[in-house]
Amino acid sequence: MRLGLSCPDGRPPQEVVDLLCTAGLCGRFDGHTAPALVEEPAPACHVWLLASAADVVGACERGALDAGVAGKDALLESEPAVHELLDLRAARDALVYAARTHPGARSRRARPRVATRYVRVTRAFFAAAGEQADVLAFDAPLLAVRLGLADGVVELRGRLDGAAAADLTERAEVAACSARLVCGRAARTLAGPALEDLVERLRAQLEEA
Amino acid sequence: MAIPEGMRDVVPPESGDQRALEDALLARFRAYGYGHVVTPWLEYAETFAAAGDETLADGYRLFDRQGHQLVTRTDMTVPVARLAATRFDDEPLPLRFCYVAPSIRPWAPQRSQDGEFVQAGAELLGLGSAGADAESVTLLCDCLAATGLRDFRVALGSVAFYGALVDSLGLEEDDRETFLTALADRDYPLMESVAGNAGVDQRALGVLWKVLELSGSRDGLGQARKLATTEAMDAAIRRMVEVRDLVEEAGFADVVTFDFGMYPDLSYYSGVIFEAYAPGVGLPIATGGRYDGLLARFAWDIPGVGFALALDRLLDAMAEAGVAPPGAPPVLAFSGGLEEPARAAELRRAGRAVATLPEGAAAAPPCLRREGGRYVYVAADGTSEAGGWRDMRRALGLE
Predict the structure, then answer these.
(1) Touching check for B185 and chain A: CB below 8 Å?
(2) Are A105 and A75 members of one domain?
(3) Taking the model in full, what pTM does it have?
(4) What is the chain B residue with the closest CA to A194?
């Protein structure tokens, strides 16, 4: 099994690591940080790719990994050609729309300016709500608000704490997110039984928990 | 001078590999009685619009002098269907056509496909039986085996099974269409939302989620049988099993797996569908299936089944497996061959590919150098031999 783990903050979420360890997939995990390629991390696992969600999903899409773990937020944004096999119920969070609590005079505009790392999701969210928004791609959306570039953000709720988000109020939940086990199209056919074993082991762990 | 985004030049040695591969595939098509057809790379826009598929209708458009809207072909099955319906509709059935040809689609970086891509395909028209489905899958396996690949798998799915499954949800026409589009995009949240808003029975929806998980598995078939709730679903499963059994009888055991979660990228498919995969390539190296109903759009209602191999992905898979394209002869550089055309001709008559160079010109192995009245042959692995012409004939395996 060749497995990829997305590392939003340089390391895979601890809950995901714990889940994989109890399923026998990371016996020799010793705190590697992304980006890294870990050889033979466990008897049932030939290789671990620790990388960004985009890299993990891209490697699954192109057949270099049998499966990967990536956040639902990344999957929603990039719409990769992968199959979602299991909700790991770990690293739970939600994409939310938060806007300035006290919009300044410059922000009294008909359509809000929304900074986000999730441009496609944000556009779809406002379109579905029948609202117009000026969507701005920004890797640090909270700073875009502080710079006066945006009136609000679409971001993971877990990243909205701290001083930078002090002036923001959550207005709507865009999508619930958690870590998902995914596989590429080729792996469904070429690694079918091994993948099923993996899904069954992880599902059993989740049910026990 | 640049070339348009998404396009590329194909140069030696890759172009030689591709041509050798095309020849090998055409030979397999011929072995099954498929006749080679060539269609124009421009069609009237309505030809592709008739196929009723957004991806296929979305080709680059041009206008002729009479103002007709033309489109670059985005696929080969549609032109072959148009060709058959307009030129062969009084011929006895079945018809068997094959092609090796490029198609062009507006390029998008996320599509993992060049704007222009070469496909080798075979279409069997006029037979609606499981035997015809099986012939198509068998021919695909035969083609892949002929390339030297060993670890390929062909996943078998069924649009008919999916159609029956989605029918069992009882969605209104608009919702059904949105649901099927979401299914094709594997957009599960949208499917959940459509089903939720339409008040779909949770049990029926539960069956769908379970079916989506069934792939390439040892007991997937048994589970699918248990989950089948309608006669149409049962019939679709029976058909898949029949096709798998016939392909195994034809000599390709342990190659075909079932994938009940497979949904085709193109909307003209109507029954059994299949995709071939090989290690190291994430996207299918071949796709195909039954497309009853496509020819009816060209006023000839006969069934059809076929497939297309994506040559660039197939070459990637072969490179990954360390397999050389069948019959691609290594070119022997012959320094001094320009001055000795009779010697070069002798080698070519014996089946060697020879590129002649002036005497003294440097060449990478494998190469043959004339040095005065003697010759030096350097093999691809770097070993060399020197001597007269007779020694060279022996070194080159001509005696």
Answers:
(1) yes
(2) no
(3) 0.82
(4) B217
A5 — phi, psi (to 5°)?
-125, 125
ipTM, 2 decimals? Answer: 0.71
Cα(B79)–Cα(B46) distance, rounded to whole angstroms?
A: 11
Nearest CB among B218, B279, B284 relative to A185 is that of: B284
- The angle at the Cα of A180, spanning B280 to A168, to the nearest 5 degrees, equals 130
Contact B282 A185 (CB under 8 A): yes
Same domain, A165 and A98: yes
Q: Which residues of A touch B279 (CB under 8 A)?
A: 63, 186, 190
- Does residue A127 sit in the same domain as residue A196? no
Give chain B's residues under pLDDT 50: none
**Domain containing residue A6: CATH number:** 3.40.190.10
Q: How confident is the model at residue A137 (pLDDT cuts 50, 70, 90)?
A: very high
Does A137 reach chain B within 8 Å, measured CB to CB? no
Fold of B14-168+215-321: BirA Bifunctional Protein; domain 2 (3.30.930)
Tokens of A172: 């709507």
Q: Where are the domains of chain B?
A: 14-168+215-321, 331-395
Distance of CA B34 to the CA centre of its chain: 15
CB contact under 8 A, B282 and A60: yes
Residues of chain B in contact with residue A191, where contact means CB-CB under 8 angstroms, are 216
For residue A79, give its domain range: 2-91+178-208
Q: For the purposes of burial, counting CB atoms within 10 Å of the CB of A155, is it exposed (0-12), middle (13-18) or buried (19 or more)? A: buried
Percentage helix, strand, coil, to 5, in chain B? 40, 20, 40
Q: Which DSSP string do the residues of B106-168 spell out, in sequence order?
A: ---GGG-S-SEEEEEEEEEES--SHHHHHHHHHHHHHHHHHTT--S-EEEEEEHHHHHHHHHT
Residue of B nearest to A63 (CA): B282
Token pair for residue A80? 């990769």
